[in-house]
Model the fold of this input.
Amino acid sequence: MKPTLDIVICVVALVTAALLTDAWRSARHDSSQLAATVAAQNAAIQQAGDREKQRDAQLAAALATVQAQKRSVQTAQQAAEAIPSVLPPLPLPISIHEPNLSSMPPPEDAPPAFVSIPQVDLKPLYDDLQDCRTGRLESDTLKRDLADEKTRSASLLQERDAAVAVAHGGTFWTRLKRGAKWFAIGAAAGAAAAAVAHH
Done:
């Protein structure tokens, strides 16, 4: 009977070893797949972040130029000269007529300036003003969308980090507890096998 018991113990040990080896290989395969996926996603996230930084820098430079131009225009005459440069391309030029202010009262009491807009320019000007309104509305919405997207992106990064930690067996203490549990199970199985072998 003893040789039969030894054969059963050997078969159980071999099956257990085969199952553990298969589980180990499967876990390593899943871990390597997750690592490859995370690496690819990290690269995509990094590229998107770089593009976003580049666009932000370009926008900041453009806004700084606009602000500098606004600061450089201080008088009505400077504004009259600068307005045509910020208007959309029009079929005919717009002319702005200012009264001669050299012998006039202070600017708040000065007579108004007159803008002569050719009729063919009215529709393009109206369309451009409506496009500006549309742009402001879209810009406000995009700013709010961007804030939400940054929040979503931060959440996805936290989820990814949590998935990586789980794929690697969790935190150090979780892995230590799991290892101790398997060590205890192995020790108990070995002690049971030794006890059966002695009988």
The chain has a mean pLDDT of 76.
